[in-house]
Each structure stands twice: as structure tokens, then as C-alpha cells.
Write a structure and sequence with these properties.
Elements lengths: L2 E10 L2 E11 L4 E5 L6 H8 L7 E6 L2 E2 L5 H7 L3 E4 L11 H11 L4 H14 L15 H13 L5 E5 L7 H14 L4 E6 L10 E6 L2 E2 L5
Parallel strand pairs: 3-8, 3-9, 6-7, 7-8
Antiparallel strand pairs: 1-2, 1-4, 4-5, 9-10
Helix pairs in contact: 3-4, 3-5, 4-5, 5-6
Bound molecules: adenosine-5'-diphosphate (ADP) and magnesium ion.
Length: about 220
């Protein structure tokens, strides 16, 4: 699915988080979105996924204009997005397996099928043995793996990762970077990072400062 932002601005009260951003992301684009804290990275990812609506401008998912969709249609179309959150955002009261099954259950996938697919992605991220554990019993790297499994279990076309290496040691960072590259094959991947780290060498680098994308996209 092609994604497009046209003159998108987002304000939170007096704060301008995104300022007239234009961006074309053809299907399969892979980009690092980098820049200082407060620059607008998280807001941009959320706008791409329809989690935040633009104050001004147009967000396009394929042929659909996000602001013209009903809330229900928007929620349905959001199945195309997998979001790896900055904080792991796993529910500690549930097992890893149940956390990963959750997006499928929300979409009405039958229990047996949801379990099968959750096991499949847990195996893919190397976490099958921890399926029955609680997130609080996992290491930082394993939590990231669980978050990635949950993001891809509904087979999204677009994977958005917000600061996926936060709090990881360099070795774990390298492992998570390789995993992200592996699971995003054939998908669009946008990773927000504080700097354009060599551990995630994506073809396109977008620098965002004060709500504006600065570098000409390559
Ligand atoms: N929900 C919100 N309410 C108020 N201000 C927000 C909200 N989300 C983001 N901001 C502000 O928008 C700006 C951009 O934030 P953000 O997108 O989180 O940047 P980054 O991810 O690059 O650190 C910051 O000034 C931040 O404080
Ligand atoms: Mg952020």
C-alpha cells in the first residue's frame, strides 16, 4: 500500500508537532526517520497509522483519504499497520502468547487460528519457548521480540517501529535490528530513531526537526 502525506500539520494546543509535512512512501519503502527528541517522529508514525488525525492536510492510504473515512472504516483499514511501540506496551497480566494473540482476537479471528498464528510469529522472533511467560519475566530484548511478534501477527503491509532500540545494549540492538529487517521483508518499514544508526541500514533516511522533514529524501 502506498502512503502519502500532503501538507500535513498536527498541533496539540499551542505545540506544533508536525509542520506542513509532505511525504510519499510507495509500497515497500524502507526508511529511517531520525532527529532530536520532540522533533515529531512519534507523531509522524501515529499520523501514518491513523492513530492521530492531522490538524491540516491530507493522509492517503492507497486510494483512501484517511480523514474522509468513517471511524469504523478507518479502524478496519488500520489492520494494514503493525506498530512496535517505544515502551513495550505489553500487558503484564497476560502471557506472552495472549499478548501476541490480542490483535487477532480484536479482529474476530477464531481462537484456534489465533493461537496457531501467534505460535508461528513467536517462532519467527525466537520466542516460542517463552510463550507461557509473563512479560515482566522477560529481558528487555525479549520484550522487544514479543512487541515485534504482536506487531506482525495480523500480517500488516506496513511496519512502524518507534525507537525500537531504546534501552537495549549494543549486542541486543544488533539482534533486534536484524530481526526487524527480516520480518519487514516485502513490507513497508519506517523506524523512528534518535540518530541514523548503522545497525539498521535502510535505503532511505528522513531527518525530522521541529516538525519538518529536512533532508531531501534519497
Ligand atoms: N499528545 C500530545 N499532547 C501534547 N503535546 C504533544 C503530544 N504528543 C506530542 N506532543 C508534542 O509534540 C512535539 C513532537 O513530539 P513527538 O512526536 O513525540 O516527537 P519525537 O517522537 O521526535 O520525540 C513535542 O513538542 C511534544 O511535546
Ligand atoms: Mg518519540
Amino acid at each position: 500500500m502506498d502512503l502519502g502525506l500532503k501538507s500535513v500539520s498536527v498541533s496539540f494546543g499551542n505545540v506544533v508537532a508536525l509542520d506542513d509535512v509532505c511525504l510519499e512512501l510507495p509500497a515497500g519503502s524502507q526508511a529511517v526517520l531520525w532527529g532530536p527528541a520532540g522533533g515529531g517522529k512519534t507523531t509522524l508514525l501515529k499520523v501514518l497509522a491513523g492513530l492521530v488525525l492531522p490538524t491540516r492536510g491530507d493522509v492517503r492510504w492507497g486510494d483512501a483519504h484517511v480523514t474522509s473515512l468513517s471511524e469504523e472504516a478507518r479502524r478496519e483499514a488500520q489492520a494494514a499497520f503493525g506498530f512496535v511501540f517505544q515502551t513495550d506496551a505489553l500487558f503484564d497480566s497476560m502471557s506472552v502468547l495472549d499478548n501476541v494473540r490480542l490483535p487477532l482476537k480484536k479482529r474476530g479471528v477464531a481462537d484456534a487460528e489465533a493461537t496457531r498464528r501467534a505460535h508461528e510469529v513467536l517462532e519467527q522472533v525466537g520466542l516460542l519457548a517463552a510463550a507461557g511467560k509473563r512479560p515482566e519475566d522477560l529481558s528487555g530484548g525479549m520484550k522487544k521480540r514479543a512487541g515485534i511478534a504482536r506487531a506482525i501477527v495480523a500480517r500488516p503491509q506496513v511496519l512502524l517501529a518507534d525507537d525500537p532500540f531504546a534501552g537495549l545494549d549494543p549486542v541486543t540492538e544488533g539482534q533486534i535490528a536484524r530481526l526487524l529487517l527480516q520480518v519487514s521483508e516485502g513490507r513497508t518499514l519506517i523506524a523512528a530513531l534518535p540518530d541514523p544508526l548503522a545497525s539498521l541500514p535502510l535505503p532511505r533516511q528522513l531527518r525530522i526537526v521541529a516538525g519538518r522533514i529536512e533532508a531531501p529524501s534519497r
